[in-house]
Write a structure and sequence with these properties.
Blueprint: H1 23-29, E1 36-37, E2 69-70, E3 85-92, E4 100-108, E5 115-123, E6 131-134, E7 148-156, E8 162-169, E9 177-184, E10 195-198, E11 206-214, E12 226-233, E13 243-248, E14 259-260, E15 267-274, E16 280-286, E17 295-301, E18 312-316, E19 325-326, E20 333-336, E21 343-351, E22 354-362, E23 373-374, E24 384-391, E25 398-404, E26 414-422, E27 433-434, E28 440-441, E29 447-448, E30 451-453, E31 459-461, E32 471-476, E33 483-486, H2 497-503, H3 510-513, H4 530-536, E34 551-561, E35 568-575, E36 580-587, E37 603-609, E38 614-618, H5 626-632, E39 642-648, E40 651-659, E41 665-673, E42 681-691, E43 698-705, E44 715-723, E45 739-745, E46 750-754, H6 762-767, E47 779-785, E48 787-795, E49 801-809
Parallel strand pairs: 19-30
Antiparallel strand pairs: 1-29, 2-33, 3-4, 4-5, 5-6, 7-8, 8-9, 9-10, 11-12, 12-13, 13-14, 15-16, 16-17, 17-18, 20-21, 21-22, 22-23, 24-25, 25-26, 26-27, 26-28, 29-30, 31-32, 32-33, 34-41, 34-43, 35-40, 35-42, 36-39, 36-41, 37-38, 37-40, 42-49, 43-48, 44-47, 44-49, 45-46, 45-48
Length: 811
Amino acid sequence: MPPVDRAKLPPNLRNLPLHRLSSGGLMLLNRDNNLVLPPRSITTAKGGTTAEEAASAPVALDLRIGLNIRLGNDPSPLPSNMRAQAEPHIARATSNEDFLVGVFQEGRFANGGGAVDCGYSVSHDGGLTWTRALIPQLTMTSGGPYFRATDPVVTINLINTVYLETLVATDPQFINGAIVLSKSTDGGATFAAPVVAYRPGSNSVFPDKEWMAINTFPGTATGSRLLVTFSLFSNINSNGAPIMRVYSDDRGATWSSPAAISTETTLQGSQPLYLPNGNCVVVYWNFGSSQQSERLEAVISTNGGQSFGSPIFITSAVEYNEPSIRTGSFLPSAAADRTTQNIYVVYQTLLGGNPRIAFTRSTNGGSNWTAPVAISDNPAGSGVFNPAINVSPDGGTITCVFYDHRNNPGSHVLVDLYLAQSFDFGNTWQPNVRLTSVSTDASLAPLTANGYMLGDYLGLAQTTRPTVPAVPIWVDTRTGNPDPFITRAGIAPYSDLVTAWEAARESLVQVPTTSLHAQSPDADRDGEDNQSEFASGTGANNPASVIRTGKELDLSTRLHVETGQHVGIAGFIINGSASKKVIVRALGPTLAQFGVSGVLQDPVLDLYDSSKSLVASNDNWKSSQQTEIQASGYAPGDNREAAIIQTLAPGNYSAVVHGVSSTVGAALLEVHDLDQAGASLITNISTRGPVGTDANVMIGGFIVGGGLGANGDGSSKVLVRALGPELTSFGIADALQDPEMDLFDGNGNLIASNDNWKALQQTAIQATGLAPADEREPAILTTLIQGNWTAIVRGKNNTTGVGLIEVYRIQ
């Protein structure tokens, strides 16, 4: 940086130590790059100088952390050489947890002061998607009267009115500043023209580092009050400034006269907040004097911010400044919960000679404070800065984010965003978690005499419960210039990793309502719930990113068993590298208790392998393997029924059921998986037999289960088909010439029906390579989740003949 030309500063600020002015104030006062140099240009991998592309490959983040999301494209009114952002802040609506609003400085001037404008982004799905625009009618770039704008802050009241507060330059020489408020009553879709909250009566003072709070406790005397605090600099108090306040009781339409919150005049970095009892507390930094060290203090108002008591000492503090980055070393971050009178404060400082993010807490509304503790676990000597804190409504979960150098030791300009969490009101803190998948290069930001400027502060939207993520907002240079980014950080404890993973990836509206059935959430409706997607490492919002974890565990077909070619034949395939233990059984007499007439009184069962060698045979199940069959839980209900337990190597198998002495009747042929945890799967099942009418149609049942989801939920993509005419080529003389098929769920609801397979899903069925050979044969391609499923095959117009029903696992 060239030497600062103080003659270009407003007369009232020429003696001010510039490092005690906010970075936003520096931008407003910058003249011909005398205070701030523009960001340097870089040549990206694509050969451009302003291309918005990733600077390096991203690293894998903790499973509790969602994607790093850029908040939309730079607004088109911004000049092409003024596309950088800084000083982001964010708020979550109290009454709508998916409603978030971010705000940030837009477009620093290359040959002048301040920013082109301030912008905002709105999300109605918890931060997954955003809209972005300039704050309307603010600066001349967006149709407003002001010359520059900076230091934006956002808050949202209980009825979702959005307030954006900014510091603006009111004259072309930037000698005078004002604080203005923009309001939206339609969820951020539109904003009214800004209203002045404070404007100095003369050019002898200059407002800086304003902040805003709203009383969202309607039962208190000053419910809905808007309060703005700011530092008021002049040459009289060159080491700092008094902190002033103004307030509005008519939702920002009119504002009170300004008043000081304290008689002290060496202050900066105010953080106002409201408590559930209606008290207003302002936390701030006191630069001290030759007789008094730097410290954090607070003042308390029992009338909602109209007047304040004497300053309360919080802690002594050593101001930490980065060697190459301009930071908010004098700006603490404060939050209060909605249940207790607790206040939570973080700030950057030196503890034991090392840069740390320090935390202190008051449990009695600001009267007393705990000794500060380090909540950043950065290596000794490695810098951390610009912390932001927020807290859940009950005060139990506290979240803090900050910039950190630890991933780039030795570099003074490469930083990442990190997270610290406490689940016990701040008594203990979890290990820090990295939030950024790509490090930010601060040297791509504007340069001041105190270093590269990403801004003095960040923002953090609070979590409200384990299913709602904390949402930090920060400035990131991975695209080649500074941009606003957010991520969604799941805050459930590590012991509940699935909930934290889910919260980081899905909005609240997705979680309860988009599941395929009453199982745990499945937002992308691919049949695999979030627990399964987590275990599989697939995308919770991407139905193309899926691993099917459901297994066909139980397969059965009811048919009328006759003689010759009309016996019942079931084929199944075991896929995988390991053997699988199964039980195959043939029921007849048991069916009578379910209202089936004409049952097969004494079924016989034979099991063959792919070479047609007999593996096992059984007539009456108690004649062999009785103890093992009983232990399986699948013992038939009648002694005359047949059952076989076998451990089978991967391959093709056939089970044939016929009646003793060529008797005929209705029978149920079943295959059950006795090794559900095994790696191998029963992937295909087919049953051939006569298809009659009424009760003698062919009924195929199968169960999907054994998945990685909650309660074993999973899914299986299957092709169900019914063959008839095709069987003629295999020597079946009386094949069913025109089969029809219906598919039902476990509650008897029809979910799909087909007559001729080309009528529906032709392309998708052909892509499986399993399309029927005859157009008259039906087929249904579908994804089935855990549960019972039934396919019924009958002949069109009550025709009869031999049919084949098949279920193929496609995925």
